[in-house]
Design goal:
By secondary structure, this protein is of the alpha+beta class. It contains three helices and six strands, in the order αβαββββαβ.
Length: 116
């Protein structure tokens, strides 16, 4: 079983909702939108905004790549999790793993709020 499938099972057993967020510079997000919107719906853009899961940084921000974050209420013990209180106060845990979260998209998860 893949790590994404394990996480999906964990979420379905322990959560009522999770939140996925994308953060990046406008140029990098534009490429991400093209890839994401070609495969999934609803579509996303800069207009989706932070409440919808999109954090648009300044073009000169000191970050080069795309960051995907999964926020959870429960802590899985089989993947690296960060305790968080700064970004999304209503979720105490966060997973910062772009590849893993991209695999969750293929399992039906989307940017923004995901109710299970």
């Amino acid at each position: 079983m893949s790590l994404a499938n394990r996480l999906d099972d964990f979420i379905k057993q322990n959560e009522t909702e999770v939140f996925i967020e994308a953060e990046g510079r406008p140029g990098r997000l534009k490429n991400f939108y093209s890839e994401y919107n070609a495969k999934y719906s609803p579509t996303i853009s800069n207009a989706t905004g932070a409440t919808g899961g999109i954090i648009v940084l300044e073009e000169d921000a000191n970050k080069w790549g795309l960051e995907l974050r999964l926020y959870l209420n429960h802590k899985p013990d089989f993947v690296q999790v960060t305790k968080t209180a700064t970004y999304r106060n209503d979720y105490p845990y966060r997973i910062n793993d772009t590849k893993l979260i991209q695999e969750l998209f293929d399992l039906g998860y989307r940017i923004g709020l995901n109710r299970v």
